[in-house]
């Protein structure tokens, strides 16, 4: 991995002085083309050996380009803020700093830093290290599919090279402060660090997002090499992506007998108001108690409500939040993505709202829009929604592993019931705003939505995050059923079974 | 995962009789279009619950289509043949039965069977199961990238459904033989099997190769559903693949200072013939002894020789084989792929030659052709060779994990030395056949090859399979050095360190 970066590449001071102004201008031009075209975002990962010029290169990039459109982040695995994400998946911090399309993000300290350090120090064993590297591969594959260009720079220097560099810095009183005891201490683990790094590079140098290993020993050489490579990437990112031929998998077929999971339910369920009120109160009490269980101190709750218009999502959510402490929950209504959200990978806007331990987030519609409305209305490409199932499952797996209990409800109503509710809304002055021409249009596409729902449940009702389908023609029965299922899931979590 | 396959989908006998002849004709037509176009191969994976119609569907597919162009394989994880692959990676068996382009392979018993069974029975724990599923994802991604269409059929039936089916088969004396004690025994583990399966399906239902879960309870319904889906896939496979826009990563840049790893070596090394003969003999003896070490009983040896024309690969290999037992080694010279090889995924022709335990295979040129000659001469797309590094690393990781010691040599000579040898060959009657116009043409592309070699070493000299670069202008010195390095690696293996 590091062989050719140890032969002492260098260029003369003169060559540097000739190349630098040209490179600088070209980088600025490419940066502005990127910003204008907004096809994609560019993420630069800066990793490597301490002392091999990581920080200097980041400074140069910011000097060479217009820093207003660059977001530079140093997310260290130690120090303050590193563990503020309690209960959120490890990738959460990085989702917070993804650059939007047209912009450049420089991540100096990134998703490689902690896995490599933990493995080098022997804290993460082989299996855990492998699992984290696989998670990174999946994450980067998703980013690439969403149009992000990853520029992965690895600055290398040999063990002796680092020792020499530290010593020469220490000798000069003007630079001695740059080498600390902590630097020497980390350097003691050079070999373990290199071993862990070599494996990480091997496992994550993919066709879409390869690593570039740069010899860090000569500042001029490494600066121009890194700059040229960044330039080439910026130029590519400003162009239309190149089409690569692939055989797309066909869409799941519609069931031959026309029967769907949704119409296999008994929609005749009914509850008398008096029984309802009694059951509701008891279930709300049970829910409130469960949420305060000491066993759930390191857990969070992610609730997802999906269903056609007028299925009763909002009113059901209110019956749940009535049992919750306002400081500990948040309801996130999800509509069409805004401009800032469209400039990011699809799941970005949901990552923002993930709860900490002991908190709940209730999504009124959710990331399932990708495989429902976006699929049916053609708001995204077939390629995007067909890979969506897998990305959603991976997302929910990360949530679950970070301690979230993911509970997903589909409130199922019949077309007849929806019609009744639409008509009732139109007849009620304070509800008429709840019904729009869009709602009527969506209704016409009922069979397409029904098929998308079936596929969604088939592909995303998983061992870790099953769907609960609740027949909701009778609102009272539905609300009680949702609360009952939620309490059941929480009880399993309290018992350590989920 | 299995929800919508438990609602008892069915179609009438009449509907089946109407659909079947049309489907049959369409399948035949699609099969012949596939065969004519040869864009891709189609692999049908048939998995699911016992009793849900797997075998029946495979029989139907063979009946409906022309079986001459279908290869049906039942690779069971138990029974004879299952462990004949000692020392070969677990995927080896499946590489042996991949259908060539234009053909259909039906794998009934495939790379999912053993991982699911081993995990369901508690033999493979979570980490191992995850690792095997990741390996499958990588394998299927490679197949898809190489133009294979994967049709993944999962036949499902509820626990009660299977029990009922077994009982009704047992009641009828004509079918009672179809249910064995072993079937009932396996059925006892239904729940564990379903749990493991649900996870496998979640982790491997990707955008490129999703699973289709089919309700297996009604033979007519499942047959037409599976047939229609296969038809849709065959039709897609017979068409040109659809271009999907991706931002390809740029090629690794050429070093700014024009220096390459290869020219950082000392080519002046030299050995007197007398010293050489003495050293050679001693090293050959050492090698022979090492190969017979009891510590290497469950290991194999994979040797790779690469280098420009006339670098001395053949003569070096002969010095190695002189120390080997003819029953235990095989030399595989690698030239341009033939027609059968071009109809398969790139690595296919190398998988065929992987050694068993205690055997050695010596590749005279190898899979590195992908990132050397194919890259430089444009024999494959940029997309193919840029993902090649990752695929090669994954391949060598599988080799290593199966017990192979992978030792790779680049025999490095200077252009001047190559010219001398070319001229000598042309002047020697019995060597003149060894030099062709191609050799002279390749020589003109020296700088392109040098860059490809540098990239190759940077990207594939890994912790598990490092490259050894041996300066070979002096053949005697080079041969001794190769033997020395080989013995060193074997000694590390004997000591349990590799």
Give the SSE layout:
2 copies of one chain form a homodimer.
Chain A: H1 13-37, E1 41-48, H2 54-64, E2 70-73, H3 92-95, E3 104-108, H4 113-120, H5 126-145, E4 148-156, H6 159-171, H7 181-187, H8 190-204, E5 211-215, H9 219-238, E6 242-246, H10 273-291, E7 300-307, H11 313-321, E8 329-333, H12 339-342, H13 348-351, E9 360-364, H14 373-377, H15 382-401, E10 404-412, H16 415-427, H17 437-444, H18 446-460, E11 467-471, H19 475-494
Parallel strand pairs in A: 1-3, 1-4, 2-3, 4-5, 7-9, 7-10, 8-9, 10-11
Can you walk me through this structure?
Chain A is an alpha/beta fold and 498 residues long. Chain A has helices spanning 13-37, 54-64, 92-95, 113-120, 126-145, 159-171, 181-187, 190-204, 219-238, 273-291, 313-321, 339-342, 348-351, 373-377, 382-401, 415-427, 437-444, 446-460, 475-494; strands at 41-48, 70-73, 104-108, 148-156, 211-215, 242-246, 300-307, 329-333, 360-364, 404-412, 467-471. In chain A, the strands form two sheets. In chain A, strands 2-3-1-4-5 form a five-stranded parallel beta sheet, with helices on both faces. In chain A, helix 3 links the parallel strand 2 and strand 3 (104-108). The longest helix of chain A is centred in the first third of the chain and has 25 residues, at 13-37. Chain A is elongated. The model of chain A has no long low-confidence stretch (mean pLDDT 89). Chains A and B meet through helix 5, helix 8, helix 9, strand 6 and helix 15 of A and helix 5, helix 8, helix 9, strand 6 and helix 15 of B.
């Amino acid at each position: 991995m590091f062989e050719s970066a140890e032969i002492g590449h260098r260029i003369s001071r003169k060559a540097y002085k000739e190349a630098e102004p040209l490179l600088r201008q070209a980088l600025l031009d490419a940066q502005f083309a990127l910003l204008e075209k907004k096809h994609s975002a560019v993420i630069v990962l800066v990793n490597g050996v301490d002392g091999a010029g990581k920080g200097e290169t980041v400074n140069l990039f910011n000097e060479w380009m217009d820093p207003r459109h660059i977001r530079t982040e140093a997310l260290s695995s130690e120090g303050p803020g590193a563990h503020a994400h309690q209960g959120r998946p490890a990738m959460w911090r990085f989702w917070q700093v993804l650059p939007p399309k047209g912009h450049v993000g420089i991540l100096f300290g990134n998703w490689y830093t902690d896995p490599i350090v933990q493995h080098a120090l022997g804290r993460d064993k082989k299996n855990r290290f492998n699992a984290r590297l696989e998670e990174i591969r999946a994450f980067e594959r998703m980013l690439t599919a969403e149009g992000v260009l990853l520029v992965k720079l690895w600055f290398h220097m040999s063990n002796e090279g680092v020792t020499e560099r530290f010593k020469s810095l220490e000798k000069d009183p003007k630079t001695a402060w740059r080498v600390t005891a902590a630097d020497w201490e980390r350097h003691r683990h050079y070999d373990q660090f290199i071993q862990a790094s070599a494996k990480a590079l091997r496992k994550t140098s993919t066709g879409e997002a390869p690593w570039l290993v740069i010899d860090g020993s000569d500042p001029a050489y490494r600066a121009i090499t890194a700059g040229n490579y960044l330039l080439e990437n910026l130029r590519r990112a400003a162009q239309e992506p190149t089409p690569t031929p692939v055989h797309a998998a066909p869409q799941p077929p519609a069931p031959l007998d026309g029967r769907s999971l949704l119409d296999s339910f008994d929609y005749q369920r009914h509850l008398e108001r008096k029984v309802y009120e009694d059951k509701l109160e008891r279930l709300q009490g049970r829910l409130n108690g469960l949420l305060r269980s000491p066993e759930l101190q390191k857990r969070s709750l992610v609730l997802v409500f999906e269903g056609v218009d007028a299925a009763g999502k909002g009113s059901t959510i209110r019956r749940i939040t009535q049992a919750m402490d306002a400081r500990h929950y948040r309801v996130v209504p999800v509509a069409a993505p805004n401009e800032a959200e469209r400039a990011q990978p699809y799941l970005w806007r949901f990552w923002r709202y993930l709860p900490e331990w002991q908190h709940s987030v209730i999504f009124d519609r959710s990331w399932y829009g990708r495989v429902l409305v976006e699929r049916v209305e053609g708001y995204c490409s077939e390629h995007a929604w067909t890979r969506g199932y897998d990305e959603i499952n991976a997302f929910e797996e990360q949530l679950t592993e970070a301690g979230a209990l993911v509970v997903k409800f589909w409130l199922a109503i019949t077309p007849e019931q929806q019609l009744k509710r639409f008509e009732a809304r139109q007849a009620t002055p304070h509800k008429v705003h709840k019904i729009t021409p869009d709602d009527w249009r969506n209704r016409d596409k009922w069979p397409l939505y029904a098929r998308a729902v079936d596929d969604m449940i088939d592909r995303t009702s998983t061992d870790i995050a099953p769907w609960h389908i609740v027949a909701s023609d009778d609102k009272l029965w539905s609300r009680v059923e949702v609360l009952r299922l939620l309490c059941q899931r929480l009880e399993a979590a309290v018992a350590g079974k989920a």
